[in-house]
Specification:
Layout (H helix, E strand, L loop, with lengths): L2 H8 L25 E3 L4 H6 L1 H11 L3 E4 L7 H10 L3 E6 L2 H6 L1 H11 L3 E4 L16 H23 L3 E5 L7 E2 L2 E2 H7 L6 E6 H6 L4 H7 L6 E4 L1 E2 L5 E2 L8 H5 L2 H4 L3 E4 L7 H15 L2
Parallel strand pairs: 1-2, 1-12, 2-3, 3-4, 4-5, 5-8, 8-9, 9-12
Antiparallel strand pairs: 6-7, 10-11
Helix pairs in contact: 4-6, 7-8
Length: 286
C-alpha cells in the first residue's frame, strides 16, 4: 500500500519526524540498526520480573528499549540489567509532574542508565489547555504557553547533554480556531530544543497524514512509536493493520527518524505481540 492508498485508509482517523532539523532527503528509506520496544507494551511482565522480561525482549531481536517507569529498580540496577542482555535504552517517558518536580533526579537517572532523550508522553486531562472550560483563542494561547514550557525543558536537557521530546496522542490533532493544536506546538517550540516522538497509531486515529507532517516539519521527529491500526480504529500488532510502514519509512530521512519503538497499549499476549511486530519489521530489511 503506497502513499495514495495509505492516505485513503487514514482519512478520518492519520501519521508524523527530529529535533534540530537535518537535511531532508525525501525518498530515502532509512531503517534503524536496531528496532526498539516501548516497554509499556510488556509492563505487566516487567512488573513481575524485569530481568527475565528484558531477556525475552532481547531474544526476539530488539536492540533498544524505551522505559515508562523503572518498576522499583534503581538506575544502577536498570543499567546492569540492560548491559547483561546487550540492550540500550535511548529514551524514557516522564510525566509532566515528574518533569516539573523531579527534573534533576531524572537527569541523574538518564546519565546512569544511558538515556539520550527525556520524553513527555501525555498530558492528563487537567493538564491540557482548555480543561478549565476555556475555548477558542484561549485554548490556542494555552498551547503556545505549553510550548514555552517545553522549550524550557529542552534548554535544561541541552545543558545536561540530553534531548527533550514530546509524544503525541490524538487530542493534539483537534482543530481550534482553524489551527491544529499539534501544529501550534511544533511551530512554537524551538527545533534546537524540542523534538517529537510521533505515535503513528494516534496520529492516524486523530486524522493526521504522516507525509504531510514530514513535508511541513522536516527533521522534527527523532523518535517514533510503530503502532498499527485497522480501518475500524482497532490497535493491532504491527503488520496486522493498514498503516503502510514501508512507505512511511521511505521518508525517514526527511522526517529525521532515528529511533523506532514498537508499541501496543493493550496486547492480549505481550510477548507474542512484540514478536509478531518484530518479525514484520525485520522483513522490511529485505
Amino acid at each position: 500500500m503506497k502513499r495514495r492508498r495509505f492516505v485513503q485508509h487514514s482519512l478520518g482517523a492519520g501519521l508524523l519526524v527530529t529535533c534540530a532539523p537535518r537535511a531532508a532527503a525525501a525518498g530515502l528509506r532509512t531503517l534503524p540498526e536496531a528496532w526498539g520496544l516501548q516497554l509499556y507494551t510488556v509492563r505487566s511482565l516487567m512488573a513481575r520480573d524485569v530481568e527475565r522480561t528484558l531477556a525475552a525482549v532481547a531474544r526476539i531481536g530488539y536492540g533498544e528499549v524505551e522505559f515508562a517507569g523503572y518498576f522499583g529498580r534503581s538506575p544502577a540496577e536498570i543499567r546492569a540489567a540492560l548491559d547483561a542482555r546487550g540492550l540500550t535504552a535511548p529514551a524514557v517517558h516522564l510525566s509532566l509532574e515528574e518533569l516539573r518536580s523531579n527534573f534533576e533526579e531524572a537527569v541523574d537517572a538518564a546519565a546512569e542508565i544511558g538515556h539520550r532523550y527525556l520524553v513527555l508522553p501525555y498530558l492528563a486531562g487537567p493538564e491540557r489547555p482548555g480543561a478549565d472550560g476555556a475555548t477558542g483563542t484561549a485554548v490556542v494561547d494555552g498551547y503556545r504557553r505549553l510550548a514555552d514550557e517545553l522549550n524550557g525543558f529542552g534548554a535544561r536537557c541541552r545543558e545536561a547533554g540530553l534531548r527533550f521530546a514530546y509524544h503525541n496522542h490524538d487530542f493534539e490533532l483537534e482543530e481550534v480556531d482553524g489551527l491544529r493544536l499539534l501544529d501550534v506546538m511544533i511551530e512554537n517550540t524551538d527545533p534546537e530544543l524540542v523534538c517529537y516522538e510521533v505515535d503513528f497509531y494516534w496520529l492516524v486515529h486523530g486524522g493526521g497524514d504522516p507525509f504531510d507532517y514530514f513535508s511541513r516539519y522536516p527533521g522534527r521527529f527523532d523518535l517514533c512509536h510503530v503502532k498499527d491500526r485497522t480501518t475500524e480504529g482497532e490497535m493491532v500488532d504491527v503488520g496486522a493493520g493498514v498503516i503502510d510502514f514501508e512507505a512511511i519509512f521511505e521518508q525517514s530521512a526527511q522526517a529525521g527518524l532515528i529511533h523506532y519503538f514498537v508499541e501496543h497499549d493493550a496486547p492480549g499476549d505481550p510477548i507474542a505481540s512484540v514478536r509478531l511486530s518484530y518479525e514484520h519489521l525485520a522483513a522490511l530489511d529485505g
